[in-house]
Amino acid sequence: MPELNEDEIIRDWSLNESDKKFISKFNTNYRLWIYLQLCVLKLFGQLIDDPNKLDIKIIGYACKILGLPIVATVELPERDATRTEHKTQIFKYLEFSRFEDSIDKFYDWLKSKVNNGSIICEKIYPDAELFLIKNKVLLPTTYNLKREINSFCFHKQEELYSNIYKTLPNSFIKEADNILSLSDSNKISWFQKFKEYPGASTITLLNIYLGRYQKLLEFELDEIDTSKIPIEFQKHLFQLARYYDSWKIKRFKVEKKYSLMLAFLLESKKVILDYIIQMHDQYISGIYRECKNTHESNLKKYKRQNERAIDKIECFIENALELTDAHKIALNKIYEKTTSKTDLQKARDDMRKYKIESKYGYANLLQNRYNSMRRYFPEFIKLPFLAETGSQNLLNTITLIRQLDNQDISTIPKDINIKFLDQNIVASIYDENGNIKRNLLEIGVANSIKEAFRSGDIFIENTNKHVSFWDLVYKESDWKKNRDEGYKQLNLEKDNHKATENLVNYFNQSAKESEIRFKRDDFATIRDEKLTLRKKERVDIPEDVKRIQSLIDSYLPKIKIEQLLIEVDQMTCFTKHFTTIHGQKRHSGNLYKTLIASILAQATNIGLYTMQNCTPNITTEMMRNITDSCIREETIKSANAELVNQHSQLQLSQVHGDGSLSSSDGQRFIISASSLLSSLYPKYCGYYDKIIGVYTHTSSQYSVYNTNAISCSLRESLYVIDGFLDNNTILSIKEHTTDTGGYTEHIFALCHLLGIRFMPRIKNLKTQQLYSVDKNIDYGDFDKLLTKSISLDLIEEQWDQMVRITASMKDKLCPAHEIIRRLSKGSPSDKLAKAFTHLGRLIKTEYILQYITDEELRNKVYRQLNKGEHRHALARWIFFANQGKFLVGDYEEIMNKVSCLSLTSNALLYWNTVKMSEIICQLRKNGEEISNESLSHISLLSHKHVIPMGTYFTDTLL
Predict the structure, then answer these.
(1) DSSP 610-633
(2) Is the Cβ–Cβ distance between 381 and 398 less than 8 Å?
(3) Would the pTM of this model clear 0.85, i.e. be above it?
(4) Measured between alpha carbons, how far is 186 from 182 in angstroms, rounded to an integer?
(5) Strands 704-710 and 735-737
(6) What is the DSSP letter of 357?
(7) How far, in Å, CA of 80 to CA of 73, rounded?
(8) What are the E-state strand segments in 713-861?
(9) DSSP label at 466?
(10) pLDDT digit string (tens) for 664-723?
C-alpha cells in the first residue's frame, strides 16, 4: 500500500456514527483491530491478516478517532476463534457475502462484460474486483478470481474464432497460408516481412514497404466484415501473432489460426502505412536539410565575392560622381584611378551570381533531387490521402499529380493554387514562359505532405498515428456519454464560466503571494522594466552530507550484478511477472538462471551471444527462447512496477520523498544499426554517427517508473505526459519537472488539466514573456513584467473541448505525444490550439512568478533534476558493452534493452536502499548522529561496489 496523505486518510479511513456504535460493542483492547479490518474490508473487499503492515499514519489516525492511546503496533486477538468471530460480525455488519454465495450475480455481470466485447482476462480483472467490492462481496484469491474470468473469456474467444472463420472467403484463407510459407524466391515469409521494423529511410526501403502495402491490398481486407470483433481483442490478437513464429501459428486450430491472421493483417496494414509516412518524412527532411546546408555554404562563398564586388563598384561610382558636367575625362582615366574594366565586369558577374544563388539556388538544389525522389513518389502519392478543412488545395494538387502520372493530362494548369508550397520554391517554380515546373511542384508537394501529416491537416483513415485528429480523441457521441465521468476523474469544473473564474482567482492569489515574497527574496530584481536574475546554477551539498555519503559508500559490500538481481528477486519476487505469452507460470530450474542472464544481456548491452561466453551452461538458444516468450514490454513493465512499488515502502526511500515528485529527461546513445528511430545530431556526436534518445521518468525516490525510446529529431516535450499516463506503479505523481527541452506552453496547460504541477527549469528565464489575466488589476512590482494579457474568453469558449482532449489522453485513447504533436502545429483548429496556448501561458506565468520568488521551489527543482542526472550516470555505467552503442535497429529490441536497463537500475536502487538502511542503523547504534534531513540529500544510486562485467554465476547457488 502506498504512503497516504492526510486527505486520503480522512476520506478512506474515517467512521460514520453507525460504525462507531458497532465498534463500541467490542472489548477496548480489540477496537483498533476491528476499526482497521472494517475500513480494509470496505476499501479492498478483503480482510488483512496483519494490520501492522498498514501505513503507521493510518494506525495513528485510528487511535485518535477511537480515543485510544497512540500506539505503533496493533494488538491482535490471540485466539483463532476470537478472530474468526470478529470477522463474522464484521461481515454481518457490513452485509458482505462470500464469493461462493454471490457467484450467480458475478456470472451475470461477467456475461454482460464479455458480451459487450471485454474478453481479455487481464483487462476484466480490475473491473471485477471493483464490482465485487461495490456489491459487498468478499474477494476470492487472485488465482480463483482469474480462473473464473478466464473460463468465461476462453469460451467467448472460441465462439469469436468460430464466427470470424465463417466470414472469411476462401481467397483469404489461401493467401494467408501463402504468406505463412516460404516460397522458392523468398528467404523469409511475407508474414515475417510484415513484422520487420524499418531501418533508416532510403528510396529502396520506401519502395520495399510500399510493395508490402500493395501486398496487403491483395487481401481485400476492407471487404471482410470485422464489425463484430472488439477493437481491444483485435489488437490483442495482433500482439499474439507478432510473438508467434509461422510454424506455431500453423499448429493452431483453423478457427484460431485464421482469426489471428486476420487481426495481424488488419493491424499490419495500419502499421506499415505509419512506417511509410514516417519514412517519407525522414527522407524529405533529409533532402531539405542537405540542400539547405549546401545552399548556405554556397551563399557564404558568393557572399565574400559579392562584398568585394560591391567595394569595387562603390569605388567606381564614387569617383564617377565626383566629376562635374564640365569635366571631359575619358572613361579609361576612371578605370585607371579605380579598377579595370575587366575587374568591374567580374564584380558585376559576382553580384549577379550572388543574387541568383540567393533567390534560386535553394530551389535549384532541390530540383536536382527530383529524379531520385521520383523512384518512389509515384507509388507514395497513390496512398488514400484525406484532408481537413482548409487543406483542400493540397489534396487537389495531389490529384493533379496522379493524373499526370496516369497521363490523363499532359500539362499543369497555370491557375492552380500553390499557396501551400514553401515560399523558397514558389519564387522559382515558373519557367520563362510562365509555366509551372513539374519537378519543383512535386518536390514542394512532397514537403507539404510531410508538414501536413505533422499538423494533421492531411490524414489517412485506418492508420494508428496519422488518422484525423478527432479520431484520436473521444468522438462527439462518446464524449456525451463519458463527459460527466471525465470531469469527475480530472476533478475539473464543468461550468466553463466558473472554470475561468477559478483560473483567475488561482492566478491572482498566487501572484499576490509571489509579490509578497518578491520583497524578501533577492534572486530576482526588476530594472528598467526588465527581469534580472542572480546566477545560481546548482544547490550546494552540505559537508556533513558528503561525509555521510562517503561513510555509507565505504561500507557497501562488493557484489556481482547477477547476484544483486537474484538477491533483490528473493526480497521482491519481481521475476514472477515474466510469464509466457499464454500466461502460464515459468518453469523452475535452470530457466531461472537463463532468465537472469537474458535480462542482463539486454541491460548491459552484452547481447545473447557474448553472454553465452560469459555464463557457464547457458546457451544462446536457451536465452533466445526465454527472451522471445517471457521478456517483452508488458512483462518488463510489470516487473519494474513491482520493484518501484516495494522500494517506495522502504523507510529510507520515504526520507527522500513520498514519490509524488518526479522529473523526466532524455539521454542520448549512439546507434550503429540502421533504424527509422535514429537521427543525426551533430551537436552531440558529429556528422557521421546517428543517435537515439532514451527518455526516462524518475521519481524523487530515484526509481524509474517509465522509459521510452524516442527519436532525437523531435522535442522531448512531446513525451513528458506519456510517462504520467503510462505509470503503472503506486506512485501518484503530483509535481513534475524537466529541463528546457521538456517545456512548452501546451505542456503547462495539459499538466494543469491533469492535476499535475509542472515545474520546469527554463533556460533564459528572464526573457520569457509574462501575461496577466486583466490589465486593470494591480500586480504591484510585477506590473512592469506582465505586459500582455490572456484571452479568457477563448479559454472559456474552448473549455469543454480542452477537457475532452485531456480526458481522451487520460483514458489512453491515443498516445499523448500524438495529440501534443498535432496541437503544437496548430491542429486540429486554430482556436483550440490557441486556447491551450493561452491556458499554458497563464499557468506558466504563475509558475515563473513563484519560481523567481521562492527559493524552496528552486531548490526542489534543481535537486530533482540532479536525481535524474545521477540516474543517467548509472544507466551509462550499466550499459557498458560495445562502448554503450546500440547494435540493433528494431524498435521492440531497443525497447527491451532500455526497459531491462531501467529494471536493472531499479534493482540496484532497491538493493542499495536496503543495505544503506542497515549501515545507517548500525552507525546510529555506534553513536553516529545522522539526521533524516542529511539522509534526504544522499544519493541512493552509488554503484562502485557493484561488478557489472566478467564471468557470471561463478559463485551463485541457484
Answers:
(1) HHHHHSTT--HHHHHHHHHHH-SH
(2) yes
(3) yes
(4) 6
(5) unpaired
(6) I
(7) 19
(8) 735-737, 757-758, 770-772, 786-789
(9) S
(10) 999 999 999 999 999 887 777 766 789 999 999 999 999 999 999 999 888 899 999 999
